[in-house]
Design a protein that fits this description.
The chain is an alpha/beta fold. The protein folds into two domains: 106 residues, Beta-Lactamase, CATH 3.30.450.90; 249 residues, P-loop containing nucleotide triphosphate hydrolases (Rossmann fold). 30% of the residues lie in helices and 24% in strands. The protein contains twelve helices and 15 strands. The strands form two sheets. Strands 9-8-10-11-7-12-13-14-15 form a nine-stranded mixed sheet, with helices on both faces. A six-stranded antiparallel sheet has the order 3-2-1-6-5-4, covered by helices on one side.
Amino acid sequence: MDRDAVFGVTLRKFLLPVAPFLDDPSISEIMINGPKEVYIEQGGKIAKTDITFDDEELLHAAARNIAQYTNKRVDELTARFDSRLPDGSRVHVVMPRCSRKGLCIAIRKFSKTSFTLEGLVERGSLTPQAEEYITLVVDLEKNLIVSGGTGTGKTSFLNAVSGKIPSTERILVIEDSSELQLQQPHVLPFETAASDRHGHGAVTIRDLFHSALRMRPDRIIIGECRGGEALDLIQAMTSGHGGSMSTLHANTATDALHRLETMALMSGVEMPLTALRAQVASAVDLIVQLNRMSDGRRMVTEISEVGTLTTDWHYQVTPMFELDDRRNLKKPKLELVWTGNKSSFAKSLREKGLRDRAKLTAPLFAGAK
């Protein structure tokens, strides 16, 4: 048996009480809140189960094995860590020294379904017109941010968008724990590394980003911006690395820009706020906003272009598509519709000779400056 298979057999033994949830494709997340409390997410809804762990040491053994699989350090001083399972499922562990309920494990399961923009159209999360628009944005090498709250499907959507990157390009992917599953032939996936027990050898997203810039990338994708690496991403986006992508946590497109600004300030580099804000506005071309609806569905609720700053240094965000209630079937139907605004990418579309590709989206680019 190979390493992954051995790890899988061992882990299932330690997580035996929740093994049926691991096997059930309808369950998207398993939340172990200490040995006596287990929740699951199914169909977008969270529910408590009657599952418990009689032997708490099983949980600790599972945590140690999960950490070792991705070369993470676990000792009495460890407070928390990110990891993944062989199938790509994401795992976050919080140790008892920080959790009053004991060891907590959250497993965000990797979907066996390959997410594509076309698939999102079939599910109703996108319209054909919005799908064509995003595809053109990727072809135009515009910089894109996927924004949303926890559990809104940001990583899955980023994976779907990245599928539109031409197979001839060299793509560098940087993540804390590898989740993105790009299908192009020339992909370099990088993953952060924890320090050893002496506090040495840690490799951060910022470290990997600096390496990526020196490895002749056509595109750089950061799985999620969480801190000071946002400044590196902004500067790369404004210095010739078009078509870069990332995700971040925010509730609106404007909030996403302010969030990016705040994270850039965490880099420790002193910069006037007006200068930083100008860089953010210049770096980000498009924001795709995701939300989880009351019925559990994850949907694209807004697609917006980012313009230059106003004269009083505020961001200009132009919604191109917004979620609207279509009532032509006697009952509300949520649908992502064109707002009527013209795209600022029309000139780029002409210069790249892609106007013939704009079929459903021709009205967005017609007569635009």
